[in-house]
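Protocol check, entry for the methods section draft. Step 1: assemble the input record (protein sequence plus ligand SMILES). Step 2: submit for complex structure prediction. Step 3: store the C-alpha coordinates unaltered in the notebook. Ligand used here: calcium ion. Step 1 record:
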Amino acid sequence: MRTSFLTLTICLITIPAYAKYSGGTGEPNDPYQIATAEDLMLLGETPEDYDKHFVLTADIDLDPNLPGRKVFDRAVIAPDTNDATTWFEGTAFTGVFEGNRHTISNLTITGAGYLGLFGQLGSWLHQAEVQDLMLLDASIIGSGNYIGSLVGVNGGEVARCHSDGTVTGFGDQVGGLVGQNGLPSRGIGVKLSWHFAYIAVIFEAIFKYFQRSFAR
Ligand SMILES: [Ca+2]
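Step 3, stored output:
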Protein backbone atom coordinates (compact mmCIF):
# COMPACT_ATOMS: atom_id res chain seq x y z
CA MET A 1 0.00 0.00 0.00
CA ARG A 2 2.80 2.39 0.88
CA THR A 3 4.54 1.59 -2.42
CA SER A 4 1.34 2.26 -4.39
CA PHE A 5 0.90 5.63 -2.73
CA LEU A 6 4.49 6.58 -3.48
CA THR A 7 4.11 5.52 -7.11
CA LEU A 8 0.91 7.53 -7.45
CA THR A 9 2.55 10.59 -5.91
CA ILE A 10 5.46 10.44 -8.31
CA CYS A 11 3.09 10.09 -11.26
CA LEU A 12 1.19 13.19 -10.19
CA ILE A 13 4.29 15.35 -10.16
CA THR A 14 4.48 17.04 -13.52
CA ILE A 15 7.72 18.50 -14.68
CA PRO A 16 7.07 21.80 -16.48
CA ALA A 17 8.48 22.02 -19.98
CA TYR A 18 11.62 24.15 -20.18
CA ALA A 19 10.42 27.62 -21.03
CA LYS A 20 12.67 29.91 -23.00
CA TYR A 21 12.56 33.66 -22.47
CA SER A 22 9.28 34.72 -20.81
CA GLY A 23 7.10 32.39 -22.85
CA GLY A 24 6.16 31.47 -26.39
CA THR A 25 7.58 28.95 -28.83
CA GLY A 26 9.14 31.26 -31.39
CA GLU A 27 6.53 30.41 -34.02
CA PRO A 28 4.62 33.17 -35.89
CA ASN A 29 1.40 32.51 -33.95
CA ASP A 30 3.21 32.13 -30.61
CA PRO A 31 6.33 34.32 -30.64
CA TYR A 32 8.92 34.15 -27.90
CA GLN A 33 8.08 36.80 -25.31
CA ILE A 34 10.82 39.24 -24.39
CA ALA A 35 9.88 40.86 -21.09
CA THR A 36 13.18 41.59 -19.32
CA ALA A 37 16.74 42.72 -19.99
CA GLU A 38 17.78 39.12 -19.27
CA ASP A 39 15.44 37.85 -22.01
CA LEU A 40 16.84 40.35 -24.48
CA MET A 41 20.46 39.53 -23.65
CA LEU A 42 19.68 35.80 -23.81
CA LEU A 43 18.27 36.32 -27.29
CA GLY A 44 21.49 38.08 -28.23
CA GLU A 45 23.53 35.11 -26.98
CA THR A 46 21.41 32.55 -28.87
CA PRO A 47 22.16 32.77 -32.62
CA GLU A 48 20.22 29.56 -33.26
CA ASP A 49 17.06 31.53 -32.42
CA TYR A 50 17.80 34.43 -34.78
CA ASP A 51 15.32 33.11 -37.37
CA LYS A 52 12.44 32.89 -34.87
CA HIS A 53 9.61 35.27 -34.04
CA PHE A 54 9.79 37.53 -30.98
CA VAL A 55 7.48 40.01 -29.32
CA LEU A 56 8.44 42.62 -26.75
CA THR A 57 5.93 42.46 -23.90
CA ALA A 58 7.32 45.16 -21.59
CA ASP A 59 9.53 48.24 -21.62
CA ILE A 60 13.16 47.29 -21.00
CA ASP A 61 15.84 49.46 -19.40
CA LEU A 62 19.41 48.51 -20.38
CA ASP A 63 21.04 51.16 -18.16
CA PRO A 64 24.56 49.71 -17.59
CA ASN A 65 24.36 50.81 -13.94
CA LEU A 66 21.45 48.46 -13.26
CA PRO A 67 22.19 44.91 -12.04
CA GLY A 68 22.97 42.42 -14.81
CA ARG A 69 23.36 45.07 -17.53
CA LYS A 70 26.57 46.28 -19.11
CA VAL A 71 28.18 48.56 -21.62
CA PHE A 72 28.08 46.30 -24.67
CA ASP A 73 31.17 46.05 -26.88
CA ARG A 74 29.20 44.57 -29.80
CA ALA A 75 25.65 44.68 -31.12
CA VAL A 76 23.29 43.05 -28.62
CA ILE A 77 21.76 40.83 -31.32
CA ALA A 78 23.50 39.54 -34.48
CA PRO A 79 26.92 41.12 -33.82
CA ASP A 80 29.91 40.92 -36.11
CA THR A 81 32.20 38.45 -34.39
CA ASN A 82 35.54 39.51 -35.86
CA ASP A 83 36.54 43.15 -35.63
CA ALA A 84 39.75 42.54 -37.58
CA THR A 85 37.89 42.46 -40.91
CA THR A 86 35.45 44.95 -42.40
CA TRP A 87 32.97 42.30 -43.54
CA PHE A 88 30.28 40.68 -41.41
CA GLU A 89 31.14 37.33 -39.87
CA GLY A 90 28.40 36.84 -37.32
CA THR A 91 24.94 35.37 -37.74
CA ALA A 92 22.44 37.87 -39.13
CA PHE A 93 19.03 38.20 -37.49
CA THR A 94 16.56 36.77 -40.00
CA GLY A 95 13.47 36.50 -37.82
CA VAL A 96 10.76 38.92 -36.77
CA PHE A 97 11.03 41.26 -33.79
CA GLU A 98 7.72 42.93 -32.95
CA GLY A 99 8.37 45.81 -30.57
CA ASN A 100 4.68 46.05 -29.74
CA ARG A 101 5.16 49.81 -29.17
CA HIS A 102 7.40 49.21 -26.19
CA THR A 103 10.66 50.98 -25.44
CA ILE A 104 14.23 49.81 -24.96
CA SER A 105 16.08 52.54 -23.11
CA ASN A 106 19.72 53.35 -22.34
CA LEU A 107 21.27 50.92 -24.80
CA THR A 108 24.98 51.69 -24.47
CA ILE A 109 27.57 50.26 -26.87
CA THR A 110 31.22 51.16 -27.30
CA GLY A 111 32.80 48.97 -29.95
CA ALA A 112 34.08 48.58 -33.49
CA GLY A 113 31.70 47.99 -36.43
CA TYR A 114 28.17 46.72 -37.09
CA LEU A 115 26.80 48.38 -33.97
CA GLY A 116 23.21 48.88 -32.90
CA LEU A 117 20.64 46.75 -31.12
CA PHE A 118 20.98 44.53 -34.22
CA GLY A 119 24.37 44.24 -35.93
CA GLN A 120 23.01 42.90 -39.21
CA LEU A 121 19.34 42.54 -39.98
CA GLY A 122 18.51 40.18 -42.86
CA SER A 123 20.91 38.31 -45.11
CA TRP A 124 21.45 37.58 -48.79
CA LEU A 125 19.01 34.68 -48.56
CA HIS A 126 16.59 35.60 -45.79
CA GLN A 127 14.42 38.58 -44.92
CA ALA A 128 13.93 40.00 -41.43
CA GLU A 129 11.53 42.42 -39.79
CA VAL A 130 11.71 44.81 -36.86
CA GLN A 131 8.68 46.92 -36.19
CA ASP A 132 6.90 49.16 -33.66
CA LEU A 133 9.98 49.61 -31.49
CA MET A 134 11.24 52.71 -29.73
CA LEU A 135 14.82 53.18 -28.51
CA LEU A 136 15.23 55.88 -25.87
CA ASP A 137 18.53 57.50 -24.83
CA ALA A 138 20.71 55.16 -26.87
CA SER A 139 24.44 55.86 -26.72
CA ILE A 140 26.48 54.21 -29.45
CA ILE A 141 30.17 54.77 -30.17
CA GLY A 142 31.81 52.83 -33.00
CA SER A 143 35.35 52.94 -34.33
CA GLY A 144 34.45 50.88 -37.42
CA ASN A 145 31.84 51.01 -40.18
CA TYR A 146 28.05 50.55 -40.08
CA ILE A 147 27.05 52.30 -36.86
CA GLY A 148 23.42 52.94 -35.95
CA SER A 149 21.26 52.78 -32.85
CA LEU A 150 18.74 50.17 -33.98
CA VAL A 151 20.61 48.44 -36.80
CA GLY A 152 24.19 48.52 -38.12
CA VAL A 153 23.36 47.11 -41.56
CA ASN A 154 19.75 46.71 -42.59
CA GLY A 155 19.08 43.97 -45.11
CA GLY A 156 15.51 43.52 -43.93
CA GLU A 157 12.49 45.64 -43.13
CA VAL A 158 12.36 48.25 -40.38
CA ALA A 159 8.89 49.70 -39.87
CA ARG A 160 7.45 52.20 -37.42
CA CYS A 161 10.60 52.41 -35.29
CA HIS A 162 12.24 55.43 -33.78
CA SER A 163 15.19 56.27 -31.61
CA ASP A 164 16.78 59.09 -29.68
CA GLY A 165 20.20 59.47 -28.12
CA THR A 166 23.64 59.79 -29.69
CA VAL A 167 25.45 57.81 -32.34
CA THR A 168 29.16 58.51 -32.72
CA GLY A 169 30.99 57.01 -35.68
CA PHE A 170 34.62 57.17 -36.70
CA GLY A 171 34.21 55.13 -39.90
CA ASP A 172 31.82 54.96 -42.86
CA GLN A 173 28.04 54.48 -42.84
CA VAL A 174 26.86 56.12 -39.64
CA GLY A 175 23.19 56.87 -39.08
CA GLY A 176 20.75 57.75 -36.32
CA LEU A 177 18.52 54.73 -36.67
CA VAL A 178 20.34 52.57 -39.22
CA GLY A 179 24.03 52.73 -40.18
CA GLN A 180 23.54 51.43 -43.70
CA ASN A 181 20.19 50.71 -45.30
CA GLY A 182 20.80 47.78 -47.63
CA LEU A 183 23.38 45.03 -47.53
CA PRO A 184 26.61 46.02 -49.21
CA SER A 185 25.96 45.73 -52.99
CA ARG A 186 22.31 44.94 -52.42
CA GLY A 187 19.35 47.30 -52.31
CA ILE A 188 16.51 45.10 -53.47
CA GLY A 189 14.02 43.98 -50.86
CA VAL A 190 15.19 46.39 -48.21
CA LYS A 191 12.58 48.59 -46.67
CA LEU A 192 12.68 51.38 -44.12
CA SER A 193 9.24 52.81 -43.50
CA TRP A 194 7.57 55.14 -41.03
CA HIS A 195 10.65 55.58 -38.96
CA PHE A 196 12.20 58.58 -37.38
CA ALA A 197 15.16 59.29 -35.18
CA TYR A 198 15.59 62.26 -32.87
CA ILE A 199 19.23 61.57 -32.57
CA ALA A 200 22.47 63.44 -32.67
CA VAL A 201 24.75 61.75 -35.15
CA ILE A 202 28.32 62.74 -34.57
CA PHE A 203 30.98 61.99 -37.13
CA GLU A 204 33.94 62.19 -34.80
CA ALA A 205 36.55 61.88 -37.52
CA ILE A 206 35.26 64.99 -39.29
CA PHE A 207 34.82 66.83 -36.01
CA LYS A 208 38.38 66.07 -34.96
CA TYR A 209 39.66 67.13 -38.35
CA PHE A 210 38.07 70.52 -37.89
CA GLN A 211 39.41 70.74 -34.35
CA ARG A 212 42.88 70.10 -35.67
CA SER A 213 42.38 72.63 -38.42
CA PHE A 214 41.31 75.32 -36.04
CA ALA A 215 44.12 74.50 -33.61
CA ARG A 216 46.80 75.29 -36.15
CA1 LIG B 1 34.20 41.54 -39.34
